[in-house]
Amino acid sequence: PDGVGALSLQFEQLKEKLTKEGLFDKAHKKPVPVFPQTVGVITSLTGAAVRDILNIIGRRCPCVNIVMCPVLVQGENAASQLTSAIKRFSENNIADVIIIGRGGGSQEDLWAFNDENLARAIYECKTPVISAVGHETDFTICDFVSDLRAPTPSAAAELAVYDVNVLLGYLAGAKEQLSMLMERKNRILKMQIEQKKQMLNSLSPMAKIREKKYQCIRGEELLEEAFLRIINKKKYQLQIQIERLSGLSPLQKLQQGYSYSVNSDGRNVRSVSQVKPDEILEIYVTDGKIMTRVDSTTTIQY
Question: N or C: which terminal CB in the chain sees fewer CB atoms within 10 Å?
Answer without folding.
Answer: C
